[in-house]
């Protein structure tokens, strides 16, 4: 496979951009080899600067649930561009977007648009603190909530792949206010809440984790969390930046039937444009400025072009709810196929899957939390990743990421992916 142009661009990029990329995992550091520089994407495919074409299993890390450059979204963006790029003043589209989100996610009674998932989570914990008058927050080991200081403690995916899970630059004082507990462990959570009684403002969780690879909550785990948060006056924040509008139209909270107090969103609501949002109970959201005293702002927030893309995306998902059934079926077919290949080759790896999210973990342990995720053989994953890439399948360049399907990955493509998977695993096994 030719890689001359990407290699040249990467060398050049490294002189002007730290590590040559604008977000760390993109650098292929944990899998080896040079990142591919993408020039175009359409439907299920990415095309790189050397004209290699790949089946894309990341979908811009989640938002491309309808495939790349989806026609109706492209049309709306084209129309919007003609009316100007940014006004810094309220627009009708922001009202449409807010109403749509509140309609599709019943726990969200009011919502504030921001520009990224990071902004959404940072704002949500500030709000939890403002609302409760308490300081500490709980997060789970291996969960990622963006790069806000308070979250860069046992931070999952990117940080996990880079081998420095905590970042210099985060002060000890900030770290002291972030309590971390293992995912899927009710006992540890109950204990930390007991030890810090009356001090915890909020608990933030990925209801299904995407950032240590795909990890599902145990039966009853989210219900336990809901109950203990209510009892202890802790604001429960579901970080649905990955799962929102993906695992169901109403996100993981709809799928699992659990109602959080606040929800953070991103990715899909921008249809690929830089968008995030946080929302939830009216009583809490009314604390946000200028309605209340908690300050949070954004010059480009609610950007009209981003709103146009997001509104079209959500309208389409709302109108075609059968998409979720199709995505569930595709996810299951892929996971079942991978498990079959593993069995055939007598390899004891683990596949976690729910709906259109899945991960193949290079470990024989059940992956239920950060500790078990860390048992993966990341070196062999790197080999597998590169073999899949050579066969035209673009996976996330880290063991600790979930993969995301789009509606454009049909049965024919699933067959192709499974063939590449079997061949790649075979080649690795043979050495
Ligand atoms: N929360 C979760 C669950 C995420 O997966 C991510 C990003 N992958 C974020 C927050 C941060 O979003 P962004 O990269 O848009 O800042």
Question: What tags apply to this protein structure?
Answer:
431 residues, alpha/beta, Aspartate Aminotransferase, domain 1, Aspartate Aminotransferase, domain 2, seven-stranded mixed β-sheet, four-stranded mixed β-sheet, 14 strands, 40% helix, 14% strand, globular, binds 4'-deoxy-4'-aminopyridoxal-5'-phosphate
Structure write-up:
- This protein has 431 residues and is α/β, with parallel strands linked by helices.
- It folds into two domains: 4-57 and 321-430, Aspartate Aminotransferase, domain 1; 71-319, 3-Layer(aba) Sandwich (Aspartate Aminotransferase, domain 2), CATH 3.40.640.10.
- It is 40% helix and 14% strand.
- It is built from 15 helices and 14 strands.
- The chain has helices at residues 4-16, 71-81, 92-104, 117-132, 157-162, 172-176, 186-195, 221-231, 251-256, 282-285, 304-319, 322-344, 370-373, 378-390, 411-430, and strands spanning 38-42, 45-48, 53-56, 110-114, 136-140, 178-181, 200-205, 235-239, 262-266, 276-280, 350-354, 357-361, 393-394, 403-404.
- Strands 4-10-9-8-7-5-6 form a seven-stranded mixed sheet, with helices on both faces. A four-stranded mixed sheet has the order 1-2-3-13.
- α3 packs parallel to α11.
- The longest helix is centred in the C-terminal third of the chain and has 23 residues, at 322-344.
- It is globular, with a radius of gyration of 21 Å.
- The model is unreliable at 161-165 (pLDDT under 50).
- Bound molecules: 4'-deoxy-4'-aminopyridoxal-5'-phosphate.
